[in-house]
Structures are given as structure tokens and as C-alpha cells.
Amino acid sequence: MRFRHPDGSTVHLAYCTNVHPAETLDGVLAQLRDHCEPVRRRLGRDRLGIGLWLAKDAAHALVTDPSALRGLRCELDRRGLEVVTLNGFPYEGFGAEEVKYRVYTPDWADPERLEHTTSLARVLAGLLPDDVTDGSISTLPLAWRTACDERRAETAGTALRTLAERLDALQELTGRSIRVALEPEPGCVVETTRDAIAPLTAIAHDRVGICVDTCHLATSFEDPHTALDDLTRAGVPVVKSQLSAALHAEQPHLPEVREALAAFAEPRFLHQTRTSTAAGLRGTDDLDEALSGDALPDAGPWRAHFHVPLHAAPAAPLTSTLPVLKSVLTRLVGGPHPLTRHLEVETYTWQALPPELRPRGRTQLADGIAAELTLARDLLTDLGLKELP
């Protein structure tokens, strides 16, 4: 979906396909048929943006076979779909029964991450619509915190500088400008937007910026205005933003609140949980850890890294951090000029919701994704953007 900002520029809205597990190119093509096109039809649009997730094997197939890349581009066109952004965070196995810490490997100190992201950039340059010259790729924020010492941090920085040089060369070759965005996430080396400033200014290249995920920002209790002001002052570009909402519990000391939270503690994804105290941010790596005993102070609200559907907040006594998303979006695109032009709804946890909240089959999932995109569209038009055909 495209929107015209009051300054005349185009802002793109997509939804991320990591909600549909697929490791191979055939799986990606099936996603377009079974999920993405039905969502577009529900929205009544001739064109729908998707934030494509390409696992290692699918990316390799596309970058090594020009005919396969042309075939994917044709299939996108045929189904009324377009791609301006990729989710390059998960490397493989995102549809596994247990993902947890595996999603952070390989990290930016491992050569595989540089090669995979380079492949993604080459693929994206070939998938961009004819009238679009700028693409974006979100990626993991260097590494999980326990997997990164000073030596590995230096290696990661070198890898990102090498990537920036390759992206420069790619633009010279194709005329397409691809940028990469570190996505701060709780528990990682770069957990917050503030944590991103030092490594990104050290790289000092406008090809490498930040992806503001509104669930992650909220989980870390970051103030949206402070975060975006800090990025602006530091000259760190917001390459893209992922529109997502975290799980919020206002009174985690109450037994009924803990019972409600326990329904969201599931074995597939990591749900880092945080609370803000007078001594600073406290947290656990997962929700079940926070719920066991006194692992996390419960005098103040808790937030958990669980991407809940944007349009359907959990039932009381829980809620979501949708207000944080709205505040971030106002700052990103509500001003005289957009701070980013790539927005992506990223609720990949539909099938990890408590059983009674999960969609039953493709039809309900498509309905839910379309409802999320409708909410995001309404927020954008309320900020003065005009939806384009």
C-alpha cells in the first residue's frame, strides 16, 4: 500500500511474511498464492506491499538463478503484490516448533550473516517495482548479548562496513539504493535505540541505519519522543519501522494478571519481559521466567515481547502497547517530512497466541492481517497521508 505524504513523497506500508513459515522458494511462491493475494483482495486494493522474509535457502536460490528471480518478480506482479523491504532478521528455521535463541544466529560476527544479507540486497534490487529506487532490509542488532565480546563486536562492525561498500557497488551496478537497518531488540547487544547510536555512528555510513520496531521499543519502556530525538541528533537514519504492539500488564502482582500472562508463555518464541524501576530497567529473557517466583519486581507494569495483533488488544486485565505505536508513527510520518518511508506491520505470533485466540485456518488469518493493515491505514490517513491506488 502506498501513501502520499503532504510533502509529496511516497510512504510504503507492507505486512511481513515471516508470519507464514517457508524455507524454500517454492514455499515463498505458495505464500503469495495462499496468503498474500487473499489479504490484498480482502482490502479491496489492486496493489499490496509485502515485507518479504526469505530464509537462507530461498535467498540462495534466487541470487544464484536469474530466471528464478525473474519468475518471483513476475509472480508478484501477477498477484498484485510489491516488495520494497525485506525482513533479514531470521536466517532460517523461523517456523520451527522451537525458535527461541536460535533466531539470533548467525550473528554479525559470523561470515554467514554478511553473505546472506548481501544476497538479500541483490535479490531486493531485482524485486523493486520499476518506479521505486529505494529498498530496505531489517537485520538483527549485531548479536545476542551473551554471544558477543569485544573481539566479536569489532568483527561485526567490520562486516557492516563491508556490507555498506557492497551496497554502494550494487547501486552503481543497478541504480537501486538498498539500505540495511539494525533492529534493536530486548536482550541483544543493541537492546534500545540509544544502544544503536554508538555502533551506527562508528560505522558512519548512510547505508546502515536503524529499524524502529514499536513492540521492542515499548517493551524496553523507551519514550518514543526521546528515542527519536536522540536518533535525529546523532544523525542515525530511520531506514524502516516495524509497526507492532507488545503485551502490557499494569498490575503484575495480582494473581489474576499472572494467570492471564501465563496463557501467553509458550514454547516457540522468546518473550523477553521488562519492568521499569527506580534503579533502572529490569528484565528476564522469557515470560515464564518472569512468572516464576520473584525473578522480576512486580511493583510496576510489565511488558513482554509478544507481538499481539494491532487491532485486537488482549482481554482485561491485559492490554497492548498500541498507544506507543501511535506515538511513534506520529513522529515518524506526522511531521513536515517523513523520518522513514518504509513501514511494515509485523505480527508473526498469530499461531503462538493462546489457543482460543489463534486464527482457525487461512481465512481467519487473512481476515486478521487485513484488519491490522486497515488499522495502520487509518492511522496514516488520520495523520494527513493520502492512500494511493
Q: What is the beta-strand fraction?
A: 15-25%
Helix content: 40-55%
Report Rg.
20 Å
Number of strands: 15
Mean pLDDT: 97
Please state the structural category.
alpha/beta
Write the H/E string, N to C: EEHEHHEHEHEHEHHEEHEEHEEHEHE
How widely separated are the two ends? 8 Å
- How many separate helices? 12
Strand order of the largest sheet: 2-3-4-5-6-7-8-14
Low-pLDDT stretches: none
Give the overall shape: globular
Tell me the major beta sheet. Answer: 8 strands, parallel, barrel
Characterize this entry briefly:
With 389 residues, the protein is of the alpha/beta class.
Structural account:
- The protein has 389 residues and is α/β, with parallel strands linked by helices.
- The protein contains twelve helices and 15 strands.
- The strands form two sheets. An eight-stranded parallel barrel has the order 2-3-4-5-6-7-8-14, surrounded by seven helices. A five-stranded antiparallel β-sheet has the order 11-10-12-9-13.
- Strand 5 (134-139), helix 5 (150-174) and strand 6 (177-182) form a beta-alpha-beta unit.
- The protein is globular.
- The termini are close together.
- The mean pLDDT is 97.
